[in-house]
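Q: Hi! First time doing this. I have a protein sequence and I read that you can turn it into a structure. Is that right? Here it is:
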Amino acid sequence: MTNRPPLLRLLAGAALLACASPFATADWEPDRVIVELAPGASVADINADYGTILLGSIESENIHLLDLPDGLTEDQAEKLLEDDPRIEDVEFNHEEDSPEEDPTGGTQGFFFDSVESDFAQQGAWEQIGAGVASGAATGSGVVVALLDTSVDVLHPHLADAIAPGGYDFVDDDADPTVGPDTVTGAELVAHGTFMAGLIAHVAPDATILPVRVLDDDGRGTSFRVAQGIYHAIGREVDVINLSLGAEEDIELIKDAAAAAVEAGIIVIAAAGNRDEDEVLEPAASDPVLGVASIDADDIKSIFSNYGGDVDLSAPGTSVVSLGLGGVYGHGDGTSIATSLVSGGAALVRSRWPALTVLEVRERLMTTAMPLDELNPDFAGALGAGRLDLAAALDVDEPLAGDLDGDGLVGFGDLLTLLAAWGPCAECPADLDGSGDVGFSDLVMLISMWS
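A: Yes, that's right. Below is the predicted 3D structure, encoded as structure tokens:
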């Protein structure tokens, strides 16, 4: 933990990456320091000796956030503490900037002008094989920790989807959900809800553990994120979704991610939104599954980072999900792609609970659809390819028009279609995806007759 951690940022929905100058004075909490103590060392003794004040702890790791006394500069504190044999590592906590201040223009926006049918019928589900995969696994018994902003647990699509035991490391309380104090006009306040909706749709019987590590403007610190990861480890979750990252290594977070993997947890993180040949940390770390974004045509999203550290790609352009107060919206970003992969990992873990983290990773990657031919300028830089859940779960694509599952398109399917006639959102008989079963669906069924 000797490197000072760079800025953590959300990577979708008005999300930003780490700033270009991570060591600028304005980016730091100048009066705070993170220390990792040697086994048996006491933070109370450290405070007594140096006049520091304890602000927060990760008790399981003997890691503490301390407030420095007046008159002690960062450099003085770093040298003083590093020379103390009771202190194994020192780094400074990062002070986040407003998302509007990104000088690179890398912001990706959310627009809450969609409706429920846009969410239910969007092409992203078919693109990753989510509908077909649901016949093999639904995520039952799996818990996905979502480290993000607060989550609107009252949204209809999140009913029965929230696991107990979440935590808010911004307000330091046990309620990580959207509440009366939530700044609903903040640009990124709905980010956590948006990601939760994607995970819940891909893995509808999994539960989501909301862990708030980012405020209503999407700002966080390395200490909060590490707290969130270790909290998720303690709750024995199966998957951790990290829609945040930084340009420089942060040993505190890398160590936490490695500890999660060691505990059997699949950790998935976003590659970044700057269209750069560089993957952010912790997505670039070996134990973490790093995710890039593609569009509806399997072409790299114009904003997505890429490179040799990308493991997998998934849709992240103009994807629809949930907003606050029961609304729906669309947005762009590698955070979106990451959440779809997290939902997919939940399905694989649900179907084969005994698989190791490495085996889940291998299954997701070896079954992915190659993207190099469609993206010759990014060959080898979009990971193993596009997430393919039907292949990952060993599910054969169903015969188009086979509504009764007998392997043929015939009279039984006609009866099924007629019985569903009329409005029928997400209905198998709605062959044209219009939200209604009608004449055009009948024509399509007849054309598929076998």
